Amino acid sequence: MAKVDAAAVTLGVSGETLMENAGAAVADIAARRWRDARRVLVLAGPGNNGGDGFVAARRLLAAGHEVRVALLGERAALKGDAAGAAARWDDGVVEPSDAPFDWAELVIDALFGAGLSRPLDGPAAALVMAANASGKPILAVDVPSGLDGASGRAVGPCVEADVTVTFIRRKPGHLLLPGRTLCGEVVVADIGQPDGALSAAKVAARLNRPELWRAAFPEPRIDGHKYSRGHVAVWSGPLLATGASRLAATAALRAGAGAVTLVGPRPALKIHAAHVTAVMLREADQKAGWAPFLADRRIGTWLFGPGAGTDEEACGILDQGFSAGGRAVLDADVFTIFGGRPEELGAAIEDGGCEAVLTPHEGEFARLMGERMRPDASKLERALAASALIGATVVLKGPDTVVATPDGCASIADNAPAFLATAGAGDVLAGICAGLLAQGMPAFEAASAAVWLHGEAAREAGRGMIADDLPLALRSVLGRLDDGPS
Ligand SMILES: NC(=O)C1=CN([C@@H]2O[C@H](COP(=O)(O)OP(=O)(O)OC[C@H]3O[C@@H](n4cnc5c(N)ncnc54)[C@H](OP(=O)(O)O)[C@@H]3O)[C@@H](O)[C@H]2O)[C@@H](O)CC1
Ligand SMILES: Nc1ncnc2c1ncn2[C@@H]1O[C@H](COP(=O)(O)OP(=O)(O)O)[C@@H](O)[C@H]1O
Ligand SMILES: [K+]
């Protein structure tokens, strides 16, 4: 954002104007969201975040509110635009220790924003803890103070906001946990940045919404047939572990793949046969495995991992997949098989000429990557680093699922309800992803779409849902997608 700010100034919009617009947006949202709050306490910090706070204070006062400002640091020490904003605040300021929380009906947190450079301590930490303990509604400016907007981490005390007003674009920290929960509702305000200012910044990640991948979403063609809609082969687990692969296979079909086949040993297929109808079954004898089946050129996509096992046979089957090339979704047991050996996984993917999507949860990710990640790296950075190392699209799952590609594209999802964390949900996600890849959707778009659809399907199914309900719930979500942007 510092680069965007600088570019805006070059393009003729001054920092002072941006700050005025930022403070005005904060005042406007404060007045609209808390109509009955007469007495507003602004906590202002030593940088430009504090400057925004002074602007908001002046505007709220002019609109008829009673306003007090508690300033962290010396008024004379303020610099640049913040000093200008403070100069236009005609009233006095109080010491942080005198901040009148009992008096206030609304607290505006303008202590620290993008300039947070270390964990809060001393008077700053005390002020943040007092704000949280006050029980008063808190409106945070840009980010809740104490939150690192790049990573979503709070390394020390952090404001717990009801609403956060940020400027121009959301930052990763508004979406990555715990940041998302500390922000409350996030409102993005336009502050009059000129067209072109945004191109100054490298956008690290985008919010996972249909706009991101809708144009690449497969549409059934009127002159198409089932094989032109893609055929997915899913490796089945053994006799007593068939459920996971069946969930994945069903989901791939619901996601629009033209045909899906579960491949595995006969005892397992007998179990599948009692459950599935549209999904096809193909016996693979222990020795030949599924290599002959994958050799069929109509099968462009294979999925391995859910319930697959980690024994020698499973490893052999996985190797056959790599040798077949094509598009691959690798999940679950793959991360145990390649535990601590991500480079070797990357080499197998590359040697086979595969386009791979990996779908680990945090535990599997840690198992796969071993000690390779910086302990302070954010979820976004970790997914991007793993993706670049392995040469595959990485879907790092959780409430804030990140999709990352080797060339540095990323999406972050915020739509999955907490009750989606249930056994088998990940298998369904892997299946949706395979179903979209099979229809020719590029990996980043397919993985991002799968994650979003999965979250929406869970919302559609509602509380009490189990993984088995998700594939069917996809129907209405896909139907709404046809109705246009959500
Ligand atoms: N285009 C945009 O987005 C626009 C952005 N705008 C606004 O500008 C904000 C960014 O402003 P900013 O760069 O001045 O940083 P800010 O967050 O005020 O903090 C810096 C000060 O805090 C201090 N400090 C840091 N950590 C500390 C700690 N732990 N404990 C104690 N002190 C600590 C740090 O001191 P230092 O690290 O130098 O010792 C420095 O004095 C942004 O969030 C948005 O609100 C709008 O006005 C206009 C358009
Ligand atoms: N707290 C949460 N809120 C929302 N979604 C979650 C949460 N925790 C996990 N999920 C999602 O639930 C699914 C669980 O997948 P996974 O852990 O692989 O389960 P399984 O292996 O049993 O299928 C993933 O899609 C993940 O993103
Ligand atoms: K803040």
Which features characterize this protein?
486 residues, alpha/beta, Rossmann fold, UDP-N-acetylmuramoyl-L-alanine:D-glutamate ligase, 2 domains, 6-stranded parallel sheet, 19 helices, 15% strand, elongated, binds ligand NPW, binds adenosine-5'-diphosphate, binds potassium ion
Q: How does this model look, in words?
A:
With 486 residues, this protein is an alpha/beta fold. Helices cover 40% and strands 15% of the residues. Helix 17 packs across helix 18. The mean pLDDT is 96. The structure holds ligand NPW, adenosine-5'-diphosphate and potassium ion.
Q: Looking at CATH, which topology of the largest domain would you report?
A: UDP-N-acetylmuramoyl-L-alanine:D-glutamate ligase
Question: How many domains, in number, for the residues?
Answer: 2
Inertia-based shape: elongated
Radius of gyration: 26 Å
The bound ligands are: ligand NPW, adenosine-5'-diphosphate, potassium ion
Helical fraction equals 40-55%
CATH architecture term of the largest domain: 3-Layer(aba) Sandwich
Strand content: 15-25%
